Structure formats: structure tokens, C-alpha cells
Amino acid sequence: MAISIQKFEEQGGRLKTDDIDFESFRTQPLPSDVLRCISYMHDIEYQTVMYTRELLMVPAWKDPQFTAFLTLWNYEEYWHGHALGRVLAAHDRPANDIRLAEMRRFNKRYLVWSPALFWLLGHAVRQFPAVHMTWGAINEWTANAAYNRLAAIADHPVLAELLGRIMRQEGRHAGYYASYARDMLQDNRRAQKVTSWFLRHQWAPVGHGDVPKIETSFTTAYLFGSGDGMELIDRIEGRIDALPGLYGLNLVRTGIANSMAHVIETEGFVPQPPVRDGGAGKSLADDKLVLAG
Ligand SMILES: [Fe+2]
Ligand SMILES: [Fe+2]
């Protein structure tokens, strides 16, 4: 059964960072490949307000439960971006407003055509809520897995603590989306068919069109193209397979393979992350409501 907004709002809120020692990165800096992933994640977290702009174009804007979720979700993602910006700033890398002002020049699609497209899809495709909720669950699962993998690769205690807190909120977001997706797809063959079509033809790792394509490709290939990252993707595929009518899409694996090919074509190779003991997969949040740290 779908998680109520009352249940969702009981937990979560602003990410707690007052006890995170961001200055420690000055004496124990992160490797450049890890910082490149964090830059991408920073950009995507902050981009949630743009996704909200699109989602407010669908007829569900009239539903107060839907707008309550968008408000809380957007607020929490904002603080994820903010915290990652502090990590970048501690490495004297561009972050927060400087990066965002640059991005907004790149994000011209949000001016007219992508909100217009959402208006059209929302009004013309009766089953679009099922598509959106399933899409959201997949993106939150992959966000959760990306932070999990990045924490294992970086092996930095301060970063691991910060990413662990973000992951718990991503798990909660995934739980909310997935609970709606399951309800909407259950016993609704039409919703299953439409959702499956959109995923097969339109889904790509989050960030497509928001940041330069190579940055999305690099992060997804670096985190999930080898080792324990592939195991995390198998688990996400298992979750998608378990949704009614969506068995066998092989969606995320295909997206990662495309990212690998793109990075090799553009930059010659995908760097191999260091292999660490333990870690991967152990904290991939369940799609139940996960308590926020
Ligand atoms: Fe987030
Ligand atoms: Fe999230």
C-alpha cells in the first residue's frame, strides 16, 4: 500500500551536517575521480527544483498530497546539494551558486519545452502517474546505490558519514515512489504497458540534458561499471523486475553499458576504482520507509 504523506513527513527534513568536519578534507583530500562524481551529484541534487517545475505541469498539481511530497522531497534534495557543495568548496572547487549559475545557462530546456512536454504527457497519457512514480523509484534507487558505492571507493570516514546520512534519505524517497508505483501498476495492464514503453524508450541515467552528457556517463561508468558496483545494479534490476509487469527490462545495466561505451569513446578509458574490502551492497536501503539519520 502507498505510503501516506503523513508517514513521509514524520521523518526526514534538513540533512544534519553541523557535526560534519568539512575542514578535514583540506588535510585529507579526496581523489580527483571521486570529486568529479561529487560534482555531478551536487549538480543533480540541486536540479530537483527543475524537476519540480516539470512535475507541477501534470494534472496531479491539484492534489495537495502530491504537492506536499514535492515540497518535502525538493527541500531534502536541496540540502544534499548544499552539503556536497561544502565538500567541493573544501577542495577549492566551484560549488553551490557559482556552479548553478553556470548550469542554468546550460539548462535552457526548462524555459519552455520541457514543462510544455510534461503538460502534454500529463494531459494526454492517462497512465502517466504510474510512469512518473516508477521513474522516480528507479532514480532514487540508483542515487542510493551511487552514494553507497562512492563511500566504499573513497574510504574516507567523514565522507562515509555524510553519504550514509544522504543515503538514508534517498532510501526513504525510493520507498515512497516505489509504494505508489506498485499500487498504480498492480492489476493495471495498461499502466504496465505504458510504463514499460516509456522506460524502454526514454529512460537514461539521471542527468541527461541537465549536465554535459560525459559527466553523467563518467559517474555511472566509474561507480557501476565494475566490481561491487555491478552487484548493486543487479539488486536494482531485481527491484524493477519485482514491480508488476516490468520484469526483464534490463534497464539500468543497459544504461551503464552505454555510459561505459561513451566514456571509452570520449576519454579513451574508464578509470578503475580501487577495490575495498566489504561495503558494497550492505547498506543499500530497502524500499521500505527508511528512517532518516
Ligand atoms: Fe538526494
Ligand atoms: Fe532523493
Low-confidence spans: 279-293
Series of secondary-structure elements, N-terminal to C-terminal? HHHHHHHHHHHHH
Largest sheet: none
Overall geometry comes to: globular
Q: β content, as a range?
A: under 5%
Distance separating the two termini: 24 Å
Q: How many strand segments?
A: 0
Structural class estimated from helices and strands:
mainly alpha
Question: How many helical elements?
Answer: 13
Bound molecules: fe (ii) ion
Averaged pLDDT: 93
Estimated radius of gyration: 18 Å
The portion of residues assigned to helices is 55-70%
What does this structure look like?
- With 293 residues, the chain is mostly helical.
- 67% of the residues lie in helices and 0% in strands.
- The chain has 13 helices and no strands.
- It has helices spanning 5-10, 24-27, 32-46, 48-55, 64-90, 97-106, 113-124, 128-154, 157-185, 189-202, 213-224, 227-241, 251-267.
- The chain is globular.
- The model is unreliable at 279-293 (pLDDT under 50).
- One fe (ii) ion (FE2) binds next to helix 5 and helix 9.
